[in-house]
Structures are given as C-alpha cells and as structure tokens.
Design brief:
By secondary structure, this protein is of the alpha/beta class. It has helices spanning about 1-10, 65-80, 85-100, 105-115, 120-135, 140, 175-190, 205-215, 230-235, 250-260, 285-295, 320-330, 350-365, 400, 420-425, 440-450, 485-490, and strands spanning about 30, 35, 45, 55-60, 145-150, 155-160, 165-170, 190-195, 220-225, 240-245, 265-270, 275-280, 310-315, 365-370, 390, 410-415, 430, 435, 455-460, 475, 480, 495-500. The radius of gyration is 25 Å and the shape is globular. It binds nicotinamide-adenine-dinucleotide. This is Methylmalonate-semialdehyde/malonate- semialdehyde dehydrogenase [acylating], mitochondrial isoform X1.
Length: about 525
C-alpha cells in the first residue's frame, strides 16, 4: 500500500523502472538538468515514520557526483546571471503556479516520508509557496541606489548583483518550506544553486526541482546532491561555493557556520529553539489554551517554532487542568489518516530521546501530568508515536527545560509576575520565537520590547513572519548577520557594486594630473 502511494505520488522520486518487488525505489541526483542514478556504494534507507517500513533509499553522493553538480552550477552561472531580471521573474511566476497545482502531491510525499498530517503538510508547502510568490517581486527588491551630481558632472549608483554558486543544507522537519526559503530566493537574484535536502525527507525537494525545471529554469541552475557529513563538508570547503544557507540543529549549524566561514563563504544558519508562551491571567482563556495546545503539539512538536514551554503567570496557573483536558483530546494517528491531529516522530531514535527527556523530568523533581509515552496507535504499532505530554513544576535548571525536546511535550513553569517570566525567557540561550497571551496592551507592549527574542507573537502562538519580512530568530537560534527571505534574504544572496561615473562636457578636460585624493 505504501509503495503504491509512493509511486502515485511522484514518478521522479519513484521511477516506474525501479518499481518492482525486488528493487527498492531510489532517489536520484539532479545534475545539469537530468535526474540521474547515483553510482555510490553508500545508501541510506528512508522510512515511513508511521510504520518504520523502508520506502526508498537515498545515496550518499560520490565526490565525482558532487564535483559534477558544482561544475554544472558554475557553468550555468554566467548565462543565468545575465538573463534579464524579467525573464528570471517569469520563471518564478510559472513556478508559483505549478507549486499551487501540485500542492497536494507534494504534501502527500511529505506525509509519507516525514509523518506530519496531510493538512499540516499542505501548510508546509503553502508557507514555502509564499516565499516563491514574494521572490516574484525581485524587480523591486533588487534595485540599487542612485545619487546624481555628487560633484560636477559626476553621479553615483549601485547595483545589486548575484554572488555565483550558492548552496543550501536543509533539515527534516519542513521538507518543502525550508528548501523553498533557499533556492528560489537565491536563483531569482541570478545565482545558481546546489541543494542538499535532509537525507530523511528528500522527496519533496526532488518534486520541487522537477517543477522548477518545468517552469523554465535552465539546466544547471539548480542541482541536487544527497548525503550527510561528507556532503556537508564538501559544501563548506568547495572554493566555487560562495554562500551557504543552513537550517537545522545547533550541533550541525555551528559547525557549518564555522567551517564555511573559515573558507571565506557567507553563511546564514537558523538553528534550535526553546520557545516560551507567557500566559497572563487576563488573557482570553479559551483562545489561549487552544492556541497553546495547537502550537505545542502540532506537527508532534517537531517545529522550530513549536511553543514548547509555557510560563503561567499568577492566577493563570489554575488553568493547568484545562490545558491537560484539551491536550488529551488530540488524536494521534498516521498523518494520512482522517482526523489525525498529530503524527509520529521522525525516527525511533528521536522517540527514544524524547522519552528519555520526559524521564529526566521525573528524576529531577518535575511532575508528568499527561504522559504520552505508552501510546499505541491501532494499525501502526511500529510507528514512532508519542502522545501529547505535559510536564509541570519545571524549573529552569532541569534538563527537560534546558534541552530542545523536539517532540509533543509541553514543559510548564510558573511565576508570580511578568518580570520574572521575562527574566526566564531572556536567560534562556535560544531566541527563536515567543508569544504572550494577554488582553492588556501595555503588558503586551512591555513584553515585546523587553524580551530578547527574534520573533514575538502577541496572542499569536507561532509568529513566523510573512516573507515580505524576514525570519528573524536571534541569539543561539541564529548565526550570521542577514536572515532568511524578505529584504534580508535578497541581501544575503547579492553583493553591491558601486559605480562613480563622470561625463564631462568636451571643454572641461583636465589640464594636468590630479595627484591629490579626490574630495
Ligand atoms: P540536523 O542538524 O540533524 O540536520 C540538518 C542538516 O544538517 C541535514 O541536511 C543533515 O544532513 C545535516 N547534518 C546533520 N548533522 C550534521 C553534522 N553533525 N555535521 C554536518 N551536517 C550535519 O537537524 P534536523 O534534525 O534535520 O532538524 C531539526 C533541527 O532543526 C531542530 O533543532 C530545529 O529547531 C531546527 N530547525 C530550525 C529552524 C529555524 O528556522 N530556526 C527551522 C527548522 C528546524
């Protein structure tokens, strides 16, 4: 059944020729406009997280294949950079239409490989699509600046120009959205791109590459390699790669930032998180509890913007039993099953890690007031499921507070005042997202101003900015100086050239050499 779904989903990723009982479907490389089988002898199994059945294999690309992919990017660059900005925009305009037409196909593939519910997978594609739509406004975004008559007959102006070959390294949790933060922004600016999707969920990227090709992107402008550490090191070290966009864990991101920067590349790295939802006693209780539960447990907590920590201020601590009641009602099931609210975790190892972190709460004196560890999902007994879990009486020195859990686990702290809550949030090393729930404007304003976090929601639990702004996580959640997408994304993928130009009337010729510094 799974293979049938897989085959129906995407013939690029599961080509008919390799679809037989004896051969496992293989993910192709995308080099110079062709989907090609890797010659690698090292392959990684891809699992359906709801069953743990192997559904395909992805290669660890060979050095020769990775070199060929960068060479294709490099060859394609001069022509693509010189292609008129209106033509590049047209490719993106066709692309956004094709993504819309194929949204459900991409979502089905995401659910198969990643496990999230189909509705959530559609949201994953949709949020990436918004970035593509925004990239279509490149004609305004890439404008330089001008200043006429800085002195007699002299004008000053700047161009925004592409960098060359850029690369992207993506995580498993948003198989469509995050690659779409990367290559469309880079390519619309005139760069060519080498993409390395997460080895656990490569399918959506492959289909997105096919759709980009169908939109008219010339051969070699986007290339895809697969793999883990070797592929990452290759990207960090290759002299022809000018910039790297990374999204994933701190362990990988800090390493890539350091290694890529050492080799003279621009690197932007969005990393881990511990997002706090501060609940004031004057908040709209019904809305707040529903939003908190949705944002803590949606996508099984595997979102970098999951609201994984609640701070109940003052009387709001009395709402805890109702929070538990709402969380209990969520339906845990395979992502393609009707009515599922949350699906499985990505791997058995991820499940084990989440369960260990829940255990640590008990050992360190917290209370597990809702325990999802023993959940059994009928028909999917081998899946990596953990049900909604709530840990209360949590203190900032506990492991379950300090670590990013990345599972359907909400840790709950209590404070008497807003100031204490702000201190906890600011003492935490991560600065990705946070939200405050209140009906008092002054409280909301104070929180938004004092909290040292990149993305703040006021009665909005997952404040991921729309792409005309940028994704602005800060502190340990980000390395680099220009963020993803929006104007900052355009800055990341371009460099300025400034031209000082003088056109004198014929009779204004210099009569002797100007040896003094021009002022
Ligand atoms: P991950 O770091 O394990 O993997 C991300 C990418 O890095 C993958 O392509 C992987 O192949 C590669 N990689 C993994 N370990 C590596 C290593 N040691 N050296 C070099 N490369 C390595 O992350 P993940 O588990 O796929 O994703 C979950 C993490 O991503 C969470 O921490 C989450 O918060 C974070 N995330 C952050 C954002 C954000 O915008 N801040 C968005 C999504 C996910």
């Amino acid at each position: 059944r799974i293979l049938q779904v897989a085959f129906k989903v995407n013939p690029v990723w599961y080509p008919a020729s390799s679809f037989s009982s004896s051969s496992m479907p293989t993910v192709k490389l995308f080099i110079d406009g062709k989907f090609v089988e890797s010659k690698s002898d090292k392959w990684i199994d891809i699992h359906n997280p709801a069953t743990n059945e192997v559904i395909g294999r992805v290669p660890q690309s060979t050095k020769a294949e990775m070199d060929a992919a960068v060479a294709a990017c490099k060859r394609a660059f001069p022509t693509w950079a010189d292609t008129s900005i209106l033509s590049r925009q047209q490719v993106l305009l066709r692309y956004q239409q094709l993504i819309k037409e194929n949204l459900k196909e991409i979502a089905r593939l995401i659910t198969l490989e990643q496990g999230k519910t189909l509705a959530d997978a559609e949201g994953d594609v949709f949020r990436g699509l918004q970035v593509v739509e925004h990239a279509c406004s490149v004609t305004s975004l890439m404008m330089g600046e001008t200043m006429p008559s800085i002195t007699k007959d002299m004008d000053l102006y700047s161009y925004r120009l592409p960098l060359g070959v850029c690369a992207g390294i993506a995580p498993f949790n948003f198989p469509a959205m995050i690659p779409l933060w990367m290559f469309p922004m880079a390519m619309v600016c005139g760069n060519t791109f080498l993409m390395k999707p997460s080895e656990r969920v490569p399918g959506a990227t492959m289909l997105l590459a096919k759709l980009l090709q169908d939109s008219g992107a010339p051969d070699g402008t986007l290339n895809i390699i697969h793999g883990q550490h070797e592929a990452v090191n290759f990207i960090c070290d290759h002299p022809d790669i000018k910039a790297i966009s990374f999204v994933g864990s701190n362990q990988a991101g800090e390493y890539i930032f350091e290694r890529g920067s050492r080799h003279g590349k621009r690197v932007q790295a969005n990393m881990g998180a511990k997002n706090h939802g501060v609940v004031m006693p004057d908040a709209n209780k019904e809305n707040t509890l529903n939003q908190l539960v949705g944002a803590a447990f949606g996508a099984a907590g595997q979102r970098c913007m999951a609201l994984s920590t609640a701070i109940l201020v003052g009387e709001a601590k009395k709402w805890l039993p109702e929070l538990v009641d709402r969380a209990k009602k969520l339906r845990v099931n395979a992502g393609d099953q009707p009515g599922a609210d949350l699906g499985p975790l990505i791997t058995p190892q991820a499940k084990e890690r989440v369960c260990n972190l829940i255990d640590s709460g008990t050992k360190e004196g917290a209370s597990i007031i809702l325990d999802g560890r023993k959940i059994k999902v009928k028909g999917y007994e081998n899946g990596n499921f953990v049900g909604p879990t709530i840990i209360s009486n949590v203190k900032p020195n506990m492991t379950c507070y300090k670590e990013e859990i990345f599972g359907p686990v909400l840790v709950v702290l209590e404070t008497e005042t807003l100031d204490e809550a702000i201190k906890i949030v600011n003492d935490n090393p991560y600065g990705n997202g946070t939200a405050i729930f209140t009906t008092n404007g002054a409280t909301a304003r104070k929180y938004s101003h004092l909290v040292d976090v990149g993305q703040v929601g006021v009665n909005v639990p997952i404040p991921v900015p729309l792409p005309m702004f940028s994704f602005t996580g800060s502190r340990s959640s980000f390395r680099g100086d220009t963020n993803f997408y929006g104007k900052q994304g355009i800055q990341f993928y371009t460099q300025l050239k400034t031209i000082t130009s003088q056109w004198k009337e014929e009779d204004a010729t210099l009569s002797s050499p100007a040896v003094v510094m021009p002022t």
